[in-house]
Specification:
The chain has 537 residues and is an alpha+beta fold. Among the domains are: 240 residues, no CATH class; 76 residues, 2-Layer Sandwich (Alpha-Beta Plaits); 57 residues, no CATH class. Helices cover 30% and strands 29% of the residues. The strands form ten sheets. A five-stranded mixed sheet has the order 19-14-1-21-20. It has a four-stranded antiparallel sheet with strand order 23-24-22-25, with helices on one face. It has a three-stranded antiparallel sheet with strand order 6-7-10, with no helix packed on it. Strand 23 and strand 24 form a beta hairpin. It is globular, with a radius of gyration of 26 Å. Bound molecules: ligand L2XS5X25 and nickel (II) ion. Its EC number is 4.99.1.12. It holds the Pfam family Ni_insertion. This is Pyridinium-3,5-bisthiocarboxylic acid mononucleotide nickel insertion protein. Belongs to the LarC family.
Amino acid sequence: MKTLYFDCTTGISGNMAIGALLEVSDGEHYLRGELNKLRVPEYDVRIVKRGSHGIDGTYVEVLEAGTDIPVDAISEKIPRRELYIHGGLHHHDDEYHHGHEHSDLECGDEKSKKNAKEEKKLAKKFKKKKKKKLCGKCEKPNFKGYCKCKGEYVDCTIKANDEAHKHEHHDDPHTHLHDDCHHVHHDHDHDHHQDHDPSHNHNYDHNPSHGHHHVYRTYGDIKQIIDNSEITNGAKELAKAMFHKVAVAEATVHGKPIDEVHFHEVGALDSIVDIVSVAILMDYIKPDRIISSVVSDGYGTIKCAHGVLSVPVPATSAIYKNEQVRFKQIEVPTELVTPTGAAIVSTFAESYGLMPEMNISKIGIGVGSRNIGCPNTLRVILGEEVPSDNAVQTGDILVINSNIDDSTGEELGYVLEKLMNSGALDVSYAPIFMKKNRPAYRLEVICRAEDRDKLCEIIFAETTTIGVRYYPVQREELSRTRTVVDTELGPIEAKRVSTASGQTYTYPEYESLGRIAFELGISIKSVRAAFEKGLRE
Ligand SMILES: O=C([S-])c1cc(C(=O)S)c[n+]([C@@H]2O[C@H](COP(=O)(O)O)[C@@H](O)[C@H]2O)c1
Ligand code: NI
């Protein structure tokens, strides 16, 4: 069995994951080809070999096309002069912004001088760029491509039902007319002086803490970009699954409905390229099984557009909670896991723990940009799992029982949810008759041994019980891999399990069935039928 192990002992971020996956897949050529199928503003992906505290790996950056400037550093519009790069925020009090590595990130390294020189060059370049307010491209007739003034794609070769749009640029002190331009994306933050399809009328609630006012992409826009691209269906589903986790976390943290979560344009571009690249590479590698180490995050605070955030940052900790990521903090005083990193590991890891017995074929190291006092790397290990016991997974599992005859139904429902959210593997109630002929419920919690104390405390605090029983149990679990089945209703996520004798079964993921049923307004039974049909074809 082809197994991929994520070693997140020193954290994970989007660009570290791309670097590591590129090394195990030799997939640079494939990745570049697939990324060309994304219809997003022009950008370059720089892939270079780089060391971090003496460990060599691959460092990946998303740059503004034709420049050395990371897209998330193109922040003329962010007056607070704050910007973050993958895995880290850089606070600048000087004239320009850039996401380039600081020389101090390579403490004691010979590269520091070179980096300082490179920084000066970048600063010059970026200053020049600042003076140039207009890209000029959009003023050319028949221009098709990314208009930097407008921050969106335009196709002036298409007559869009005579929809001449006039946009007022809030950031640039000019107004100009795009006659007959068809707007490929409708993520404007402009005033439309034209009759406009109200469904495109985005009225974004802008977080003033960002101190900038420009183009946003909502979670819905990003899903559309992914769906409208020509990357494989498998990669699309994986990318959307990762974005969904980030969007749910951001929605929780900022107290907004998921569809109102928005990403400012440069941040969205960086996230899209990071997340879609990981999806493309994972779909290319196609491991049968993915396991992660317990994920290590740092502690302390970091600065980002929201100001000073405590580590794990809110969006990352929301993903830890929502996705039941097994993580711990280690003695490194900064952020080691970004929200994107948490979304990646939680999308792919079927379980967290030690590496299984396997013959290693490839090791990939993705390098991050922080100086953390030790290598800032993500390691992924690809290998063939030793087949002997591969159908059966066992672990240190307990069952906790309690008979409850005097808690209310409402309380019991609440407790079930709380136990599940606190690490229980499963929680159930069974109706029983207990002493004194009392109808009651037997609470049964299945959990890892290390979660016992925490879960018992919840049972004592939230129910009327005064005693619980627990005992270790043996468990057999079939090995499973995630897969995507193509159906007439679109791709449906599924898990494929195999028995010791080599029989395999594929079961649809309920969330995937439910989402399609909801989106298409059809019954979940008909989605399941389409899944079964897709499996047979
Ligand atoms: O931009 C937003 S909304 C943002 C929110 C949060 C929260 O925790 S809320 C954190 N961050 C920081 O941005 C960088 C980049 O993260 P990516 O996952 O996009 O690579 C990172 O330091 C986050 O902690 C941004
Ligand atoms: Ni924000």
